[in-house]
Specification:
about 120 residues, mainly alpha, DNA polymerase, domain 1, about 0% strand, elongated
Length: about 120
């Protein structure tokens, strides 16, 4: 990032932190959502307000390959919060990344379920 883009990022990042606090987010959520914004800015070496849908698809594809689903979901939610509360944009790309549905076995099986 050049100096002007870094200044713009710093301003948006501070707004992001302020909005997280104003929305009553817990400290752990503030940390996770702000880390998501820093991570995506570092990945592209640009301010996240200029990213396209294709950029986000590429980012999340790489993130899925290198991180856990909980990290992927936190980054998605953090970026969604950033777009809605800081950039005042609707989140158009909610379906870019969707975690797999995990089926859990019940603790106790009924006789009908065993048969």
């Amino acid at each position: 990032m050049d100096i002007h883009e870094q200044q713009r990022f710093d301003l948006l990042y501070e707004q992001h932190l302020t909005n997280l606090t104003l929305q009553g987010k817990r400290p752990a959520t503030i940390d996770a959502y702000s880390r998501a914004i820093r991570r995506i800015a570092a990945y592209f070496d640009c301010c996240p307000d200029t990213l396209t849908s294709d950029d986000l698809k590429r980012y999340f594809a790489d993130l899925i390959a290198s991180h856990s689903w909980s990290t992927v979901k936190l980054d998605r939610n953090g970026l969604q919060f950033f777009y809605f509360h800081v950039l005042n944009k609707s989140w158009q790309w909610l379906n870019i990344v969707k975690p797999p549905q995990v089926k859990h076995l019940p603790d106790i099986l009924t006789p009908c379920e065993v048969a």
